[in-house]
Amino acid sequence: MSAEGKVKLPPLREVIATHGLQASKALGQNFLLDEQLLDRIAAVPGAIDGQPAFEVGPGPGGLTRAILRAGAKLVAVERDRRCLPALAELDAAFPGQLRVLSGDAMAIDARAEAGDGAHIIANLPYNVGTALLIGWLSAPWEPLPWWSTLTLMFQMEVAERIVAQPGTDHYGRLAILSQWRSDARIAMKVHRSAFTPPPKVMSAVVHLTPKAAPDGVQLKHLERLTAAAFGQRRKMLRQSLKGLPGALDALAEIGIDPQRRAETVSVEEFVAVARVLGR
């Protein structure tokens, strides 16, 4: 049932004022208050009515409201105990849909709490967003990960690194980790003025949909390969990879010119080299 049909919810600005929820710079908080924008973000993963969802850092509960309005059964993790009373009001407005965990998302087993098939939807705290993403992308693929989709708000620069293509300045390890077994796209850009307080940079919502991992490739080999290649990204591969056993022979086997630089090598080519390294 909608909030309007059960409990009339106050505007988000009123919630923030009532509970004294000024955003904490130490926790990387920037609150979104535009409910139409929040509904658009919650719609990015598609129909989620009756499906499990997981949110990190709900704060005063703006995106939380939107996810609940979309009908999901939501587990939300909040580190800032000041926000818990505001989130409890949402529990009353959407009975049976919301479970709030007080704690650090970096220390919580999201799969155990949210369940397989969960849609992860979050305006991530800036200071832990990339680390959380890497953790979700490093999950076992069996043949898909435990989560169904990722819909995540990042600073624009991080979003561009996730979706970057070869030959661009943003292309690097994060793009490869994101794209080797998922489809990643920027779903929408969000102006800094949409946040309270406004951050210094623009933001974007990134949507990732998992796909089957390539056969015969282990994440550990891909990570070692890309760490070496992009550790000296301006050098030719013959220089940056010479310290990784078997890497130059793998390049030769695949037919990749060792005079190329890492930023020109496609995700598929890195995967092919990692497959040879894992044999």
TrEMBL record:
<dbReference type="InterPro" id="IPR029063">
    <property type="entry name" value="SAM-dependent_MTases_sf"/>
</dbReference>
<dbReference type="InterPro" id="IPR020596">
    <property type="entry name" value="rRNA_Ade_Mease_Trfase_CS"/>
</dbReference>
<feature type="binding site">
    <location>
        <position position="78"/>
    </location>
    <ligand>
        <name>S-adenosyl-L-methionine</name>
    </ligand>
</feature>
<keyword id="KW-0694">RNA-binding</keyword>
<feature type="binding site">
    <location>
        <position position="123"/>
    </location>
    <ligand>
        <name>S-adenosyl-L-methionine</name>
    </ligand>
</feature>
<comment type="function">
    <text>Specifically dimethylates two adjacent adenosines (A1518 and A1519) in the loop of a conserved hairpin near the 3'-end of 16S rRNA in the 30S particle. May play a critical role in biogenesis of 30S subunits.</text>
</comment>
<feature type="binding site">
    <location>
        <position position="30"/>
    </location>
    <ligand>
        <name>S-adenosyl-L-methionine</name>
    </ligand>
</feature>
<feature type="domain" description="Ribosomal RNA adenine methylase transferase N-terminal">
    <location>
        <begin position="37"/>
        <end position="212"/>
    </location>
</feature>
<dbReference type="GO" id="GO:0052908">
    <property type="term" value="F:16S rRNA (adenine(1518)-N(6)/adenine(1519)-N(6))-dimethyltransferase activity"/>
</dbReference>
<comment type="similarity">
    <text>Belongs to the class I-like SAM-binding methyltransferase superfamily. rRNA adenine N(6)-methyltransferase family. RsmA subfamily.</text>
</comment>
<dbReference type="GO" id="GO:0005829">
    <property type="term" value="C:cytosol"/>
</dbReference>
<feature type="binding site">
    <location>
        <position position="57"/>
    </location>
    <ligand>
        <name>S-adenosyl-L-methionine</name>
    </ligand>
</feature>
<dbReference type="GO" id="GO:0003723">
    <property type="term" value="F:RNA binding"/>
</dbReference>
<keyword id="KW-0489">Methyltransferase</keyword>
<dbReference type="Pfam" id="PF00398">
    <property type="entry name" value="RrnaAD"/>
</dbReference>
<dbReference type="InterPro" id="IPR023165">
    <property type="entry name" value="rRNA_Ade_diMease-like_C"/>
</dbReference>
<feature type="binding site">
    <location>
        <position position="32"/>
    </location>
    <ligand>
        <name>S-adenosyl-L-methionine</name>
    </ligand>
</feature>
<protein>
    <recommendedName>
        <fullName>Ribosomal RNA small subunit methyltransferase A</fullName>
        <ecNumber>2.1.1.182</ecNumber>
    </recommendedName>
</protein>
<dbReference type="InterPro" id="IPR001737">
    <property type="entry name" value="KsgA/Erm"/>
</dbReference>
<dbReference type="InterPro" id="IPR020598">
    <property type="entry name" value="rRNA_Ade_methylase_Trfase_N"/>
</dbReference>
<keyword id="KW-0698">rRNA processing</keyword>
<keyword id="KW-0949">S-adenosyl-L-methionine</keyword>
<feature type="binding site">
    <location>
        <position position="104"/>
    </location>
    <ligand>
        <name>S-adenosyl-L-methionine</name>
    </ligand>
</feature>
<keyword id="KW-0808">Transferase</keyword>
<dbReference type="InterPro" id="IPR011530">
    <property type="entry name" value="rRNA_adenine_dimethylase"/>
</dbReference>
<keyword id="KW-0963">Cytoplasm</keyword>
